[in-house]
Recover the amino acids of this structure.
C-alpha cells in the first residue's frame, strides 16, 4: 500500500503536469528570412502611408475652417481610429518579421485583443453614424446645421466608442478565462480570437457561439442603419431635378458606401460563419487586409473624391512654399 500515492498527491502530480501558458508565440506568415524582409519593407511602407494619410486628414480638419462641419468631424474621428487600429497590430508584426523571438506576453496579448476588437467594432458603429449623417445632410439640407448639432454628433461618436469597448470586453474576458495549457504557438500575426480559440485546452463552443452571435448582432445593427439611411438618400436623389446635384450626392456618398462595403464584407467573412469553416492561413491574410490595408485605403477613398478635402490639401501644401 505504501507504493500507491494518496489522492491529494495524485491531484498535485496532475497540476504539476498542466502548466499554464504565460507567453504566446506569433508564428506569422513564413520562416524564410528573404520573404520576411520583403514583407517587412512592404508593410512598413503601408503603415507609414496609413499614419501620414489618416493623421494628415485629422490635421486638415483641425486647421481648415471649411472642413468645420459634422461630416468632416466624423471623417477625422474615423481617420484617427484607423491610425490607432493599425498601430495596435502593425508595429509588433514588423518587429516579428526581423526578430528571432516572436513571443508576446500574456498581458500583451490580452491588451492587443482588447484594443483591436474595440477599434474594429467602433469603426462599424462609426460608419453607421456617418451614414445617418449623410441622410440628414441630403434628405433635408436646409435643416442640416440645426439637426446635426454637437448635441447630436458627439453622443453618436461617444456611443460608438462605448459600444466598441463593451463588445471588446465581452470577447476578451470570454477568451482569456479559457485555459491555455498546451501549445502556445498562435498561427497568426496578432492575438485574434479564432486562432486563440484553436489552441485553448477548454471547451470553446460557448466562445464560438458568442463570436458568431455578438459579431453578427453588431453587423446587423450597423448594416440596418446604413441600408435605411441610404434608402432615404436614394429617395432624395430620385426627387432631385438637377443633374449636378445628383452628381455631387453620388460623389459624396459613393466614397462612404465603398468604405462600408469593403470593411463590413471582410468582417462578415471573418467572423460570422461556422467555426468548422475557419482556415487559419487564409483568415490571416483577410485579417491583415482589414486591420492594415483598409486603414491605408480609407484616406484615399474619402479624400480623392472630395473637392473640399482636395482644396484644403492644396491650400496646406501652398503654405509650405
Amino acid at each position: 500500500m505504501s507504493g500507491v500515492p494518496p489522492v491529494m498527491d495524485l491531484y498535485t502530480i496532475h497540476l504539476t503536469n498542466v502548466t499554464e501558458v504565460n507567453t504566446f508565440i506569433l508564428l506569422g506568415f513564413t520562416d524564410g528570412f528573404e520573404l520576411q524582409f520583403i514583407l517587412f519593407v512592404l508593410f512598413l511602407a503601408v503603415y507609414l502611408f496609413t499614419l501620414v494619410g489618416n493623421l494628415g486628414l485629422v490635421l486638415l480638419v483641425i486647421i481648415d475652417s471649411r472642413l468645420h462641419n459634422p461630416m468632416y468631424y466624423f471623417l477625422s474621428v474615423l481617420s484617427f481610429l484607423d491610425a490607432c487600429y493599425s498601430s495596435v497590430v502593425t508595429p509588433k508584426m514588423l518587429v516579428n518579421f526581423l526578430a528571432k523571438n516572436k513571443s508576446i506576453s500574456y498581458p500583451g496579448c490580452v491588451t492587443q485583443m482588447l484594443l483591436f476588437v474595440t477599434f474594429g467594432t467602433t469603426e462599424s458603429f462609426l460608419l453607421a453614424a456617418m451614414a445617418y449623417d449623410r441622410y440628414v445632410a441630403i434628405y433635408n439640407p436646409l435643416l442640416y446645421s440645426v439637426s446635426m448639432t454637437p448635441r447630436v454628433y458627439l453622443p453618436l461618436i461617444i456611443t460608438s466608442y462605448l459600444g466598441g469597448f463593451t463588445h471588446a470586453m465581452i470577447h476578451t474576458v470570454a477568451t482569456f478565462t479559457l485555459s491555455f495549457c498546451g501549445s502556445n504557438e498562435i498561427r497568426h500575426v496578432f492575438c485574434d480570437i479564432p486562432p486563440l480559440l484553436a489552441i485553448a485546452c477548454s471547451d470553446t463552443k460557448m466562445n464560438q457561439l458568442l463570436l458568431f452571435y455578438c459579431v453578427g448582432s453588431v453587423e446587423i445593427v450597423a448594416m440596418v442603419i446604413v441600408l435605411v439611411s441610404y434608402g432615404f438618400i436614394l429617395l432624395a436623389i430620385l426627387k432631385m431635378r438637377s443633374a449636378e446635384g445628383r452628381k455631387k450626392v453620388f460623389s459624396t456618398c459613393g466614397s462612404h458606401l465603398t468604405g462600408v462595403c469593403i470593411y463590413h464584407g471582410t468582417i462578415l467573412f471573418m467572423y460570422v460563419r461556422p467555426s468548422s469553416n475557419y482556415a487559419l492561413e487564409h483568415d490571416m491574410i483577410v485579417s491583415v487586409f482589414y486591420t492594415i490595408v483598409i486603414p491605408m485605403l480609407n484616406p484615399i477613398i474619402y479624400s480623392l473624391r472630395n473637392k473640399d478635402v482636395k482644396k484644403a490639401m492644396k491650400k496646406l501644401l501652398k503654405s509650405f512654399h
Remarks:
- Residues 4-18 have pLDDT under 50 and may be disordered.
- The chain has eleven helices and three strands.
- The radius of gyration is 23 Å.
- Residues 205-239 form the longest helix (35 residues).
